[in-house]
Amino acid sequence: MSVRVGIGYDLHRLETGRKLIVGGIELPFDKGPVGHSDGDVLAHALCDALFGAAGLGDIGTHFPDTEPKWKGANSLVFLEHAKKLLDEKRFTIEHVDAVVILERPKLGPHFPKMRKALGKALSVAAEKIHLKAKTNEGVDAVGRGEAIACHVAATLSSY
Ligand SMILES: [Zn+2]
Question: pTM value?
Answer without folding.
Answer: 0.97
